[in-house]
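Same chain as my last thread, 334 residues:
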Amino acid sequence: MLAVVKEKPAPGVVIKRIPVPIPQKGEVLIKVLYSSICGTDIGIYDWNAWAASYIKPPIVIGHEVVGKVIEINSTSPTHLKKGDIVSSETHIFCNKCYQCLINNRHICENMELFGIGRNGGFAEYATIPIKTTWKNDPAIPIEAMSVQEPLGNAVHVVTKAKVTGKKVLVLGLGPTGLCAGAVAKAYGAKEVVGINRGEFRRKLAKKMGFDRVLSEIPKREYSSFDCVLEMTGNSEVFTVGLEAIRIAGVFVAFGIPKKEVILNVGKYLINKEITIKSVFGRRIWETWFQTTDLLKNKKVDLTKIITHRFKLSEFDKAMEIMKSGKAGKILLKP
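reply #2:
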């Protein structure tokens, strides 16, 4: 089969033919229908410090995927059957540690990551643990099924922020930031404002239902937002978000900074008495049910952020466009 392989601990990937994987006990084999590129994949492609600390080449990368079940290796009944259209939850949990036992499986202490710690979905076929395989509702557009992970991240962020009736600021309009704004509107936010330097994604944000989209926050709006959703991981933007939030507001951090963030704790945390929350992934399986509701009932239209489609063999070209910032979500078809 054709696959995108991170073959060496260096920038770039190799697109090559490798054997079709054999599902082990407790796994399914899927024929990949679509996969989509995540910001994490850019870091792996460029071989940044984060990737170097998590990835052990060679490995098939890619974790956002939708496919058809063609083989099930299980000795006990499962929720799946051949022909089901499924997606993968990236966070493969152990079901034994303290966090798993208190229903925090998304932050399992022994977590393995699909497409990061084990072979993933940028291929014609992939294996997924049955326990992290999500059976999709057929009412959802199939292209949207491969973009459920970033939408799920956004759902987790927005639900933690409790945005109903609130003025919400979304910092960063990558795919997850775009989803966060759409989810905030669906969940009853009074006003949703998006901030992004690039014009391309500001236009996408308008399509996703943002009330206002700006290149920067006017100083007159400092200390005026009830909720700030930090989706960039940019350490400088992090501080801007703390300026923007009102006293006793809620700040949710999602983007992973590439360097340490230095804060004036007295000015922002103590004087403002804000609540800071953080999000890593999706609650399993609560967030997936919420995501399904949003998509099935057309409260969020993910197809609006799908801007490009490429063959899997054109991965390098797709990555070039993704890194340019002039793309929303890019789909790959084997």
